[in-house]
Target: Pentacotripeptide-repeat region of PRORP domain-containing protein
Amino acid sequence: MEKALRVLDDMASAGIEPNVVTYGTLVDGYCRSGRIDDGLMLFREMLHKRVEPTTVTYNIILNGLFHAGRTVAAKMFHEMIKSGITVSISTYMIIHGGLCRNSHADEAITLFQKLGAMDVKLDVTILNTMINAMFKVQRREEANDLFAAISASGLVPNASTYGKNIQNLLEEGSLEEADDMFSSMEKSGCAPSSCLLNFIIRTLLKKGEIVKAGNYLYSYKKHT
Model:
């Protein structure tokens, strides 16, 4: 990073104004190295110098802020919208994932509902994140409705969709529903990961469900 900053200083000395790509690269470097305050300062400097950020630039700083646990990223997201910058699917993924990781699931769900009203086309990754968030804040019925809506909207549930649902069902003690979801997963052709099978077996053993755990152990051997 220090070498990169020296290049920036050299550009300034030569009268060359750094463009949005240069700033974006440096901000990304700061974020990746955990120096989020420096990255944010450079981003603000870019705005001050009237270098217009792109969708990619905003995605970089938003992602960095959320990974650092800075929920001020949500405020910056609204600034992005007000400025007229195009919001991409990647941006929505960063926002939803960041809010959920930082225990702001209700905010993520509210944003998700607004996007639905705006008819924004969302992919299965965002829907998976929302289903998981709804379970975390005990909005189980909405999570079930959203899972059903995936296929209805022409999307295909993937291994992560099934896996997150199974884990959440097991954690709340809905063992029969978890079994049904696992059966649906196998019928759909999605192979469960060893990580998921380990989680299922471990959870069932903790709950004293020895026979069920044995059945999943058979599945584990079949899939590995």
Remarks:
- The chain has 13 helices and no strands.
- The first helix runs from residue 2 to 13.
